C-alpha cells in the first residue's frame, strides 16, 4: 500500500460474493418465510437500503453481509428449528441495521412494507 491511501474497510471480493449470493437467493428465502418471520420488514428495508445507489459502500457491505447470513442454509442456529431457528438471523440483521441506522431512510421502510403486502397477497 502506498503512503496516503487507506485500505478499504471490507474485502471487496467478499462483499461482491455476498452481494451475488443475496441478489440470487434473497427473494426466495423471503417468500418461503413471509408468514413466519416478524423481522422481515427490517430485512427488506435493509435490502432496499443496500441496493440504493445513494447508500455508502461501507453501509452496503454491512447490510449485504447480514443479508447473506440470513439466506445461508447453514448458520449458527439451523433455520428449521421451530421458534429459535431464525433468532440468530434476526440478531445479525438487526445488528447490521443498528450499525448503519443513519443510512436507512423512511422510503426504504415504505418499499419494504409495500413489498411485504404484495408477497402476502401472492401467498394467500
Structure description:
The chain has one domain (12-123). The longest helix is centred in the N-terminal third of the chain and has 21 residues, at 12-32. It is globular and about 40 Å long. The chain has 124 residues and is mostly helical. It has helices at 12-32, 40-51, 57-71, 87-99, 106-123.
Q: Give the beta-strand count.
A: 0
The largest sheet is: none
- Helix count? 5
Q: How many whole angstroms does the radius of gyration measure?
A: 15 Å
- Distance between the ends: 55 Å
What structural class results from the helix and strand content? mainly alpha
Residues in helix, %: 55-70%
How many domains in all? 1
Bulk shape: globular
Strand content: under 5%
Can you write the helix and strand succession as a string? Answer: HHHHH
Low-confidence stretches: none
What do the pLDDT scores average to? 84
Domain DUF1232: 59-94
Pfam family, one: DUF1232
Protein name: DUF1232 domain-containing protein
Keywords: Membrane, Transmembrane, Transmembrane helix
Amino acid at each position: 500500500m502506498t503512503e496516503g491511501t487507506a485500505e478499504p474497510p471490507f474485502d471487496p471480493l467478499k462483499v461482491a460474493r455476498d452481494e451475488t449470493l443475496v441478489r440470487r437467493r434473497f427473494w426466495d428465502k423471503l417468500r418461503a418465510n413471509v408468514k413466519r418471520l416478524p423481522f422481515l420488514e427490517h430485512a427488506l428495508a435493509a435490502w432496499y437500503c443496500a441496493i440504493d445507489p445513494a447508500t455508502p459502500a461501507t453501509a452496503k457491505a454491512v447490510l449485504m453481509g447480514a443479508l447473506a447470513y440470513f439466506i445461508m442454509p447453514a448458520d449458527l442456529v439451523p433455520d428449521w428449528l421451530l421458534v429459535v431457528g431464525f433468532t440468530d438471523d434476526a440478531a445479525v440483521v438487526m445488528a447490521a441495521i443498528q450499525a448503519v441506522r443513519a443510512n436507512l431512510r423512511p422510503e426504504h421502510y415504505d418499499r419494504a412494507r409495500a413489498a411485504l403486502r404484495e408477497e402476502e397477497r401472492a401467498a394467500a
